[in-house]
Amino acid sequence: MRGLRGVTVTALMGGILMLTGCHGSPGTDAASGAPSPTSPSATSSASSPDAPATAAAPSGAASSAAPRPSSTSTPARATASTGAARMPASVPGCRNLSVGDDVKAAVASAYRRAFPRLVHIRPEPHRFFYGQCGAVRYAATRFQATPGVTDEELVNMQDEGSTTKYFRGTSGGGWTYLTSDGLPAGPHGCGDIPEIPAALAKAWGNCSAGR
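-> structure tokens emitted (211 positions)
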């Protein structure tokens, strides 16, 4: 009986040792197969400095690419006004003058030279304006037909005769034709004619009445 007990005890001890060895081996294998606890922290610590730099790069690129306001981006406004663009308007000493028949005849001759097909013409009564700015004289008038006018002249005067004509005269050069009103005429009369000084057009009342 003692021999049997010895064998039994020995067998039990061997079984315990075998079980102990079996339980210890998985733990060792699990420990060896488990990821190192330092790997995530090392990875995160290695990647964390790059992450802010990558995120900051678009911000820096956007700020450098953003257009800066420029003082020349707005088109410069023209400094010269419509009145300043008129060269005759800068002539000082504009004044209205009384007109005689000799001036009217000289102006009519200047118009005939500019339009040779119109011969039998004369200035309309109460539609003649005469003035001077500096050493230059100006005149404005409409024309009407005189006795002996031809049918061709009347046809040509249907449009030409209905508009005011403008002239320029100097002491040495006589009178020359400048321009005519448009069709229709401007709302400010001779005040809309660049060739007539603005101060003189004002003195003429924008050619609303004449002599």
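Strands lie at 94-96, 121-133, 136-145, 165-170, 174-180.
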